[in-house]
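Assess this today:

___
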Amino acid sequence: MRMPIAQRVRQSRVSQGAGQVLFGKGGLGYIARRGVDMGTSAAVQSLEGLARMAVQQPLELISLLPDVVPEVGLAVWNGVRLGCAPGSVRIKAMTVRADGGSEEDATGTAAINALFDGLPDEVGNFNDCLSRNFLMVMFSGMCAVEAVPGRQGSGLAQVWPVNSLTLRFRREDDGTLALYQRQTADPNGIGIFSSGMGGVYEPMPMERFFYATMDGFPDDPYGRAPFAAALTPVLECLAFIRDMTLAFHRIGMPKIDVALDYEGWARTARDVVGITDPTEIDNWVVQKQQEVVNIFAGLQPDDAFFHGVNDKVNSVGAGDKMPDLPGIWSMLRLRLIQGLKQMPSLMGVVEGSTETWSNVDWQIYAKGLESIVSKAAAPLVKSANLHLRLLGLPLKAAVEIEPVRANQRLTDAQAEALEIANEARKRDEGWTSQETAAMAVTGSGPVGQGET
């Protein structure tokens, strides 16, 4: 029996991956590689090219910066390794009781794990999906996935992270918000591909297409890219480095200053050599000057200087007269670190700070990182919920994110000891009961007499 068309469509991917083409005309061939194809390598080889891309394609440029600017690459490395490390985030299946309580269901969690462990190689596993979503949130303010159902009763077959830079929102006639993807098409089947306004905007199946956005204004569903603010500081830092390098080579690099005694050479030509014609004397001096130039041009690093007692050889440079370069660079670098939403210490900048302020900085950074990771995980949680429903399991998927914390076991133990002492003192003074003290310290009542 033939499967209905609608059901066949639901079991296939609608969003377009790199290298695909619409209308069943086959693939586009090799997938373009960033920094190699499509002119990106030429665009990022000069400051002018970067500035041009910053005006024409700012979000595309930001996505290239980790391969161009070391600071941006380090910020990506920090975020992915600290926030999306294996085991730091997991999706679990929870029961839903009538009283509002819940607990983890091992069977449902195993089904979710099996889904993400069985994804195609180009997608990877759960951590690969999470890190890709994390990067899309950081670079575009939005992440999205498409969940593709399998055979009836088997749940989802695939989950595909989607490049959110290819997505466009559209307000439908009924007022609902729908997502469309700008896809590449070969409508005539003759190998002439088109995209953008000349191509096709394909509607995404919103019943199984899930997305999350970060810090967007009202009526701006695309969100805000956390790394977007780094674009201007990146261009400033690159311009400063280029200008400083040129200045160093032109006026800061030490040069040899050779002062020649032309008047003494002229007297030698007249009194010693016996030349009387002024023109011949000038020619003789010029010839000797060229000999000196040739000698200095051929000097080796370990050669000595030989010259007349009235001739002088000095080293000159303007390095001591340059402005406060370290101060200027520190200011520009701080702007870049702030634009990347990073802690200075994570970017290799270690300056004086108290332990208290360092802990405060880390807590702020860790909370922000956990917030972004939760956004990256949200579409995956929705996919897991759909998977459980299609399996017929009365469960709800939930994400569990391990807090990003520094190693503060001693500090935590000291704080806990003070809390215990305070509660015990309140109890001993008769201000609170044993029950209240136990709840404040442990979150549960006291152990009864004789219990262990």
